[in-house]
Amino acid sequence: MKKAVVLVFSLLASVSSFAQTWSVDKAHAKVNFTVTHLMLSEVDGTFRSFDAKLTSSKEDFSDAVFEFTIDAKSVNTNQENRDAHLNRADMFDTEKYPTITYKSTAIKPVGPKKFQLTGDLTIKGVTKPVTVDLTLVGTGQNRQGKKLAGFKASGTIKRTDFGVGAMPAAVVSEEVELRASGEFVAN
Q1: Residue 39 in this model has a pLDDT that exceeds 50
Q2: How far apart are the two ends of the chain, measured CA to CA in Å?
């Protein structure tokens, strides 16, 4: 009986050891968003400070789990007054909620190197499931011989679902386009 228990634990340990963790290379990554202003023009923004990792045990990443943490105070729309407003309580409320997080809960292959990634997005203490389109751009190695993988993701959320902004959609669109891309380095 003891041998069987030891064998089961050994098998479980060996299966979990195949999972590999990858860290985002921040020099080759970005997190962006776009809203429509006055139903006339698009306003782009970015978050300058974020972290991300992925864990996968399969070469094709079909079992990947992604985790993102964004410093909400790092929002940048190239306009200081707008950025200051985005930090206030009616928008991101960065004093009370300094981070935005996303953790994937499911990944579904939908084509060669294409996936639908579903996860929990938390903004201002509100967590909602969000599905994004994910593409494996490619894989390779860096000069140090470490494995690299490049991904890009895009999707749309409704800002008011997360309590961001009370202004009408005619002023700032309800829909916010999200885009993230970057290289991950195997640890």
Answers
A1: yes
A2: 37
